[in-house]
Amino acid sequence: MAYPTVDAPYGLKPVSLLGGQPYAGSTRMYSIASGEGTAIYTGDVVIMTSAGTISKLSTTDTALIVGVFMGCSYTNATTGQKVHAQYAPATPPADTVAYVADDPDLVCKVAVCSSGTTMSGLTTTAIGQLTTFLANAGSATTGNSKFAVNATTGTATSAPVKIIGLVPETVNASGSATEVLVVFNPGAHFMRNSIGV
């Protein structure tokens, strides 16, 4: 069976931990402030705010990364029922709790884009390089992220993510892959950086 064509970014998908350990689905709960003005989708990268809550990473953010948003729960103001949701809406209820894959050794699969949601590719020369995220808005229909990594790579130590491999199934005849495996740069991760928020 052929590997499906990757024609759009889908956010970050945890696949394993460094050292070949399996990712068992572990998450930690974090609060989202009710005044948070940006929706957060499954697969989005989230950061720690000075208020001790999380928010979605923007393309220009330099705040410390917490991990990958994996859904949330909150109380529906109309029905009073607990909702388990794929995404957190902008200005969510005050009791909103996010589930975040926050292991600093997380290895994630992610699509490569040249800008926005325009698909691109990387070759083996990108392995070991650092790059940035493209923090595209997710889909309220699916609840899924449209985060991607930038096809432009380099060695700037401030970059938040390192490419550690290509996804072989997406490598084309010219050796370019539309998906890569990445880890968070230790200096950019909330759990590993020695500086507080």
What does this structure look like?
It is a single chain. With 197 residues, the chain is an all-beta fold. The protein has two domains: 13-21 and 105-188, no CATH class; 28-101, no CATH class. The chain has strands spanning 13-17, 28-31, 40-41, 45-48, 54-56, 65-75, 82-85, 87-88, 97-101, 106-115, 118-119, 130-131, 133-134, 148-150, 161-166, 179-184. The strands form three sheets. Strands 1, 10, 11, 12, 13, 14, 15 and 16 form an eight-stranded mixed β-sheet that branches. Strands 2, 4, 5, 6, 7 and 9 form a six-stranded antiparallel β-sheet that branches. A two-stranded antiparallel ribbon has the order 3-8. Strand 6 and strand 7 form a beta hairpin. The mean pLDDT is 92.
Percent helix, as a range, is: under 10%
Order of helices and strands: EEEEEEEEEEEEEEEE
Total domain count = 2
Number of strands: 16
Summarize the model shown.
The protein has 197 residues and is mainly beta. It is 0% helix and 36% strand. It is globular and about 55 Å long.
Keywords:
197 residues, mainly beta, 2 domains, eight-stranded mixed sheet, six-stranded antiparallel sheet, 16 strands, globular
Describe the secondary-structure layout:
Elements: E1 13-17, E2 28-31, E3 40-41, E4 45-48, E5 54-56, E6 65-75, E7 82-85, E8 87-88, E9 97-101, E10 106-115, E11 118-119, E12 130-131, E13 133-134, E14 148-150, E15 161-166, E16 179-184
Parallel strand pairs: 10-14
Antiparallel strand pairs: 1-10, 2-9, 3-8, 4-5, 4-6, 6-7, 6-9, 10-11, 10-16, 12-15, 13-14, 15-16
